[in-house]
Amino acid sequence: MDEEYYIALCEDPVQFENASSVNNVFFDEANKQVFAVRSGGATGVVAKGPDDKSSVAFRMEDKGEVKCIKFSLGNKILAVQRTPKSVDFKNFLPDLPHIEFSQECKTKNAVILGFCWTNWNEIVFITDQGIEFYQVLPDKRSLKLLKNQSINVNWYIYSPETAVLLLSTTVQGNVLQPFAFKNGTMSKMPKFEIELPVVPKPAKLSLSERDIAVATIYGQLYVMYLKHHTRTINSPGAEVVLYHLPREGACKKTNTLKLNTTGKFALNVVDNLVVVHHQSSLTSFIFDIKLRESDCAVNVHQPVLPARSIQPYSIPLTGPTAAPSQAPVPCELFNFALYRYLWYLQVRLQPTLNLLPDKGKLMDFLLRRRDCKMVILSVCSQMLVGDEKDSLPVVATVFDKLNQVYKDYLDAEQSYTVAMESGPSRSSSLHKRPVRTQAVIDQSDMYTHVLSVFSERKDVSHKFIIAVLMEYIRSLNQFQITVQHYLYELVIKTLVHHNLFYMLHQFLQYHVLSDSKPLACLLLSLESTYPPAHQLSLDMLKRLSTANDEIVEVLLSKQQVLGALRFVRSVGGHDNVSARKFLDAARQTNNSMLFYTIFRFFEQRNLRLRGNPGFNPGEHCEEHVAFFKQIFGEQALMKPATV
């Protein structure tokens, strides 16, 4: 079943038609390109990559067997090595002639082992006697030597992501000398030694480039050493040893990945996971160096998941000889080179849910993956229902892990905002706007995809539903994240739906649910179902010092005109309040004595403020003055004060 495969090949691999006619195939890691070279008269070349919209095809004069071929970044300049002493170049820049030019290595009697582009116009030759760093001048069709370094070299590995070159030195090859390249400069980094396995004398081991890989994991550069132990009865299985290679400072051994088996292996890094492929068992192991086993020593890792094979893949037949009805050919996994295809590997997260029963560990694993949001929300939904639903402490652990990431993002966003508002300065220029990754699961995500759906389920105890909602709110409060009102509304609606009014009253009385205007309005709407909700709402609005207008509107809508007036006086707003609003509300009560009291209050206010009890035209109270005269007579109107 597909659900068992958590490692898969991405669709649309790079494919070369008529692969049988290709003499040589070269892989350029920097540009993620595969070069297919056909000889015969002129040399035909096709360069393709997974990210290329179209392939690059061209012909070169046949000057001998191609040993290495690579484009500079952006396919601007082509470099081809045909001899041990020189590298040929060809411009692919617009407005420049496509004429080849050549550069011999400067060191006498040296043999060029290979070359690496470090920029679109900068290249380093690696020879058996050192390295030579050049700037390519395409308009002059020549190269300028920027720097060179003499050192005995066995083999080399280059990391295009970080522009770091590793050279293997010494007889055993286990002393590695790194060099860093940036903006036309070459820097020598501290050398370090790879610890080789102990073997019985007089045998000696040497370090092979097949056992070394370089990769960026969680933004840091690591050298990965595939360490094979001697085959004895009690010998441990192979392991992958990681050496952290910082830009400054010494390289240190930091992690050991236990493979618990022997044989041939291959390494990949996908989504910050180290994937180790075991050829004989046709399975792959996944390691996450940020996850540590509780029963293991620090930085010693077991596979995160049980070993699984890569998801089977079939290759559709193409070309003139392929029949339309011919079925795709299953790909022989772990032997991709036979097909001359280039794939990206991908980690499928959904199948991992059933392979990591520990929800805390599962969440730690998922939160560090690139496309994790919907899978995490799926975990949150699944852990709340069914026969195997998790206990409240487990749910709390998951919520805390999510909200820790959420809080970190909010803090980073706030720091960035403060830095930008403070104006340009040296410190603010260092601030970069935080990137919101899929690991940031906010309250809206949880409400929409998990909690609102969960609260309506009929097959779950209402006590558990309320406990889960309150646990999520507890977690938000623990990380000092302001709880959005719609979560409180969800709690209240759930309590009301199950007639748990006593619990609602307690939650409000002890401020478990934080005060807000939307929440107060929701309580008002519940008055017909739960009459005390009206007073609870008013109490909440009073606690919100900015909600005076809303309180007045609420009281007037309930025809509590005197109560509204008393509240206005209690907060000192009676000199500015609209007379017409109160008189309108008083008339709607059909209580003439109440109307008289309210009318008299505003007459007295007018007299106190202006020396005249009458209403100004701008107050639009003429209708109410006429009504007052009709009911009580004109003589009942207050007279202006006499001096």
Write the topology of this structure:
Blueprint: E1 7-9, E2 14-15, E3 24-28, E4 33-38, E5 42-48, E6 56-61, E7 68-71, E8 77-81, E9 86-91, E10 100-104, E11 112-119, E12 122-127, E13 130-137, E14 142-150, E15 156-159, E16 164-169, E17 175-182, E18 185-188, E19 192-193, E20 212-217, E21 220-227, E22 239-244, E23 252-258, E24 265-270, E25 273-278, E26 283-287, E27 300-301, E28 314-315, E29 329-330, E30 341-342, E31 345-347, H1 359-367, H2 373-382, H3 392-421, H4 443-454, H5 462-478, H6 485-497, H7 501-509, H8 517-525, H9 533-543, H10 548-557, H11 561-570, H12 579-588, H13 592-610, H14 622-632
Parallel strand pairs: 23-27
Antiparallel strand pairs: 1-31, 2-30, 3-4, 4-5, 5-6, 7-8, 8-9, 9-10, 11-12, 12-13, 13-14, 15-16, 16-17, 17-18, 17-19, 20-21, 21-22, 22-23, 24-25, 25-26, 28-29
Helix pairs in contact: 1-2, 1-3, 2-4, 3-5, 5-6, 8-9, 10-11, 12-13, 13-14
